[in-house]
Amino acid sequence: MLLLTCPWCGPRDETEYHYGGQAHVAYPANPAELSDEEWAEYLFFRDNPKGPFAERWVHSTGCRRWFNVVRDTVTYEVLAVYGPHDPRPELAAGDPR
Amino acid sequence: MSAKKLPEHPDWLWRNPDPKPTYDAIVVGGGGHGIATAYYLARNHGITNVAVLEKGWLAGGNMARNTTIIRSNYLWDESAAIYEFALKQWELLPAELDYDFLFSQRGVLNLAHTLQDVREGNRRVNANKLNGVDAEWLEPDEVAKVCPIVNISRDVRYPVLGATFQPRAGIAKHDHVAWAFARAADRLGVDFIQNCEVVDFLTDGDRVVGVRTTRGDIHSGTVGLAAAGHSSVLAAKAGFRLPVQSHPLQALVSELHEPVHPTVVMSNHVHVYVSQAHKGELVMGAGIDAYNGYGQRGSFHVIEHQMAAALELFPIFARAHVLRTWGGIVDVSPDASPIIGCTPVEGLYVNCGWGTGGFKATPASGWTMAHTMATGEPHPLNKPFALERFISGALIDEHGAAAVAH
Predict the structure, then answer these.
(1) Are residues B173 and B278 in contact, defined by beta-carbon separation less than 8 angstroms?
(2) Rounded CA separation B250/B66 (Å)
(3) Which partner for B22 in B6, B219, B303, B362 could form a disulfide, CB atoms 3.0-4.6 Å apart?
(4) What share of chain A is helix, strand, coil (3-state, %, to 5)?
(5) What is the predicted pLDDT for the residue at B405?
(6) Helices (DSSP H) in B8-98: which residue ranges?
(7) A2-53, pLDDT tens digit by residue?
(8) Is A33 on the interface with B (CB under 8 A)?
(9) What ipTM describes this predicted complex?
(10) For residue B335, which of B314, B355, B363, B351 has the smallest C-alpha distance?
(11) What family is it from (chain B) (predicted)?
């Protein structure tokens, strides 16, 4: 069970949250002009790194607000928690996978 | 300490060769699908100068971690075709490979607990029949005849309203399946190279010409990826992206019990699937952990949830104990269907995206991947499963349709 720290409510069990996948995926600026390839990229292709991953979580059974987490997908260690509109924080150079 | 000498090691089922500098074809990943691909390259296409490169040991990933269920009762035509082809191969393979891997066609029940489940189940039974897949709809009392330990009382939170039944479905001993394929492929000349991790791809322009491994460079103009949860990692090294996400998928077994469970029972709605292994363990699985993960482990509440579901369906399991839980890494695609075919790199082929359901497809996966690698063109069975479908929109949407929730 992951222990995630909601920026507004503090540390809570994983069961209080829902997962939202990769963070920082912006809606296309000009959707009407996208090619099929670009739509496919937006709809279906997401990063899937082995190592640090910036992802979205929502505190469903608490404040119901979204936030972002950088988590290592191998160790599951939470490396950073930050607001939904903040840029991905720079992490100290560790052991990149 | 006893001074008695250890007995001689029995004959090995495959050699353990050092890699040669060049092969006609290389398969990356020595799991079930990779081993089967190598076997069918040799058997169906006469391509025997083949290496299977495995970073760990043969069949130590998802091939040793799945819940061994084999069935073909998928909704869509493309899926029914490839999984039914696999099931027909399963029926032939024990004789063909001369290896009894305990394939037991004990049937699978997919329970319905809501009116929507009943409608979907009936629709799937009809679709299966049209595709030549054995399927029938059972009312609750008929469910109890097939599997007497299922609780069909109305007095539970999610009563059993009926079930689909595929009598030809079943289970097999997964590691014996891998060993059977590996022994047969080895005898045909395939080299299984273990402890050999692919760290990069050698290319000439847009063409693959080999792989860089922890045991040196190995050359081949035909390379197939069968790396399941690590497919994205390999694709990134080759310079392209795949529309898959890697998740932990957990399963568990109980201690050994007398035979009490004669079939395989799956339930989407309360979400668990249960069979009893030949040795006697109750084998259970359910859905993936929600988050992306490469850790081969997941969160305990997922295990707790599937045990609660199992108890709802099988009150007799109340005194059983969890003996062992584990996790594998599954690569889930956006439409819950596999991706088998060409990549943007010429000569490099991919077989991934099987998500939670790859074991049952092992023979068809190997057969079609071998065809694709040998001829450069997809087999009719895997043509609809190309990477290109995510651009064309011709998805094979088995999410919720494939008789299992993803």
Answers:
(1) yes
(2) 9
(3) B219
(4) 15, 35, 50
(5) 53
(6) 32-45, 77-96
(7) 999 999 999 999 999 999 999 999 999 999 999 999 999 999 999 999 999 9
(8) no
(9) 0.94
(10) B355
(11) Belongs to the SoxB family.
- The rounded distance, in Å, linking the Cα atoms of B349 and B370 is 10
> What is residue A96's predicted lDDT score, i.e. its pLDDT?
45
Three-state SS at B334: coil
Where does B273-314 have alpha helices with state H? 300-313
Cα separation, B61 vs B177, whole angstroms: 14
A3-27+40-82 topology per CATH: Folate-binding fold (3.30.2270)
What's the gap in Å between the CA of B80 and the closest CA on chain A? Answer: 24
Distance between alpha carbon B55 and the CA centroid of its chain, in Å? 19
* Cα–Cα dist B30/B50, whole Å: 12
Give residue-wise pLDDT tens across range B110-129: 999 999 999 999 999 999 99
Phi/psi at B219 (nearest 5 deg)? -100, 140
The answer to whether residues B168 and B90 touch, using CB atoms and an 8 Å cutoff, is no
The number of residues in chain B equals 406
Residue A97 has pLDDT above 60, yes or no: no
Task: Name the DSSP letter for residue B260.
Answer: -
Which candidate in A2, A4, A17, A44 is best for mutational testing of the B interface (most B CBs within 10 A)? Answer: A44
- Nearest of B120, B156, B145 to residue B135 by alpha carbon: B120
Eight-state DSSP code of residue B344: S
CA distance B39 to chain A (A): 30
Determine the Cα angle at B87 with ends B82 and B92, to 5°. 125
Query: Please, what is the end-to-end C-alpha distance for chain A in angstroms?
Result: 23
Count other C-beta atoms under 10 Å from residue A22's C-beta.
16
Report the DSSP beta bridge partners of residue B265: B109, B274
Nearest by Cα to B45 from B371, B269, B329, B322: B371
Chain A residues in contact with B301 by the CB 8 A cut-off are 1, 13-15
Q: Please, which residues have CB within 8 angstroms of residue A12's CB and are 6 or more apart in sequence?
A: A3, A4, A5, A6, A59, A62
Q: Which residues are within 8 A (CB) of B84 and not within 5 positions of it... i.e. 6 or more apart? A: B72, B131, B132, B133
As given in the structure block, the two tokens for residue A89 are: 């924080």
Q: Which residues make Cβ contacts (< 8 Å) with residue B190, sequence separation at least 6? A: B38, B39, B41, B42, B48, B50, B51, B52
User: Least CA distance to B336: which residue of chain A?
Assistant: A44
CB pair distance less than 8 Å for B243 and A74: no
Mean local confidence (pLDDT), B155-175: 96
Provide the whole-model pTM: 0.96
Q: Which two tokens stand for residue B313?
A: 């369906």
Q: What is the pLDDT of residues B226-282, one digit of tens each?
A: 999 999 999 999 999 999 999 999 999 999 999 999 999 999 999 999 999 999 999
- For chain B, the farthest-separated pair of C-alpha atoms sits apart, in whole angstroms, at 69
Q: How far is B33 from chain A (nearest CA, A)?
A: 21
First to last CA, chain B: 51
